[in-house]
Amino acid sequence: MGNIVYDSDLVEQSISDGFHVTRIGRNDLMSIQRWVCDPGGSFPEHSHPHQQIGYVYRGEMHVSIDGEQYVLGPGDTYIVEGNETHAGTNEGDEPAEGVDIFSPPLKDSDWIG
């Protein structure tokens, strides 16, 4: 049976300096989160066993994935294989925003811990 998650029920969490996530939903196979990176904000280099696919829909992010450097903007998609190191910084003047999908699903204790 399906489920509905209302935006008004969601809670944003500050993960690192200027980087915030909102867990949108999850099931047994995957989870999805919305993220916002403030100008000058970042998330530190880390890895996790989860497969990750993300999409940037606003702003610009400078991202490192497994040692390769990328600049991502609206409409760009990134794929991070399990256990690949990755990090990101917003060097722009406006917030960057996007979504991430993880499989297997993240648990609350999984984020950069």
TrEMBL record:
<dbReference type="InterPro" id="IPR014710">
    <property type="entry name" value="RmlC-like_jellyroll"/>
</dbReference>
<feature type="domain" description="Cupin type-2">
    <location>
        <begin position="35"/>
        <end position="102"/>
    </location>
</feature>
<dbReference type="InterPro" id="IPR051610">
    <property type="entry name" value="GPI/OXD"/>
</dbReference>
<dbReference type="InterPro" id="IPR011051">
    <property type="entry name" value="RmlC_Cupin_sf"/>
</dbReference>
<dbReference type="GO" id="GO:0046872">
    <property type="term" value="F:metal ion binding"/>
</dbReference>
<feature type="region of interest" description="Disordered">
    <location>
        <begin position="81"/>
        <end position="113"/>
    </location>
</feature>
<dbReference type="Pfam" id="PF07883">
    <property type="entry name" value="Cupin_2"/>
</dbReference>
<keyword id="KW-0479">Metal-binding</keyword>
<protein>
    <submittedName>
        <fullName>Cupin domain-containing protein</fullName>
    </submittedName>
</protein>
<dbReference type="InterPro" id="IPR013096">
    <property type="entry name" value="Cupin_2"/>
</dbReference>
